[in-house]
Structure formats: C-alpha cells, structure tokens
Design a protein that fits this description.
single chain, alpha+beta, disordered C terminus
Amino acid sequence: MVTDAEWARIRKNLDFGQVFEGTVVSVPRPGAIGIFVDIGLSVGGFVDVLLLPEVGEDWPTEGTVGEFEVWWADRRQQIRLKPCDSRYLRHDFTDFVERLRPSWPSEVGRPVPDPEPVTHEELRAAYRSGGPWAGPSPRLNVSQP
C-alpha cells in the first residue's frame, strides 16, 4: 500500500485510455469479482467483473500478459483497467459503454480526475437501469472542455 501523497502523484500522471502492459496476478473468483493485474507500478491494477466476459472461463488466467487501458482511478489506491484484447471484454461492451459511460471516447487521453469513489452497487444499478447518465455525471467529476 502506498501513502495518500504517493497515490495522488501516481493518479496525477494517469490518462484515460493510457495503455500498460500487465500480467494477470490473481483471479480470485472467476465470474464473480474481477482480476488483479500487475502493471509495474507501486499500486495494483484491477479489471472489474462488469467489464469482463460473463463466463469466468473466458477470462484471462493468472500469468496472462497483455495490454490494459486505464479505465478509472479514484481514492481506492487501485488503477481500474480495461483489457485491450476484445476477447477479454464482455460481449456487449460497446453497448455497455454507450449506456453506462457514453463520454468514454471523448475522455480517452484526458487526465484522470480526483472523484469520489463510485461503488460497485452504483455501477450495477446503473447497468440494470440502462445507465442514468446522458453525459458525464457530476458524481464522477469527469471534466469536459
């Protein structure tokens, strides 16, 4: 675990869509939680179950090396990642992004802001409802020019 100051420094240097080569280091409960990825920083990377294929057998296994994009980072001292390899994304990823995070294409290349954490329950509720946001949510604090 890093200090809050170190996490703020690392997060400040992250951009949405920034690509890291990483190694899957843990798949604690395939199909249920997500995967942990070592991307060579002092904080861990994590791919949430919501971004991965619905069937755990289709997830990357421990030791898989691949490219991962920065999807989010908040106060949790963990970089949320998205696999670059479409084999490791949910089958309806494009539709999922359009419903849950329609501003994603315009966020790529922008600095990751310092938002309040969004809980898994909030993400799941948004997904079940088809997504509450027509654009960036003030809760997510995604800045637009």
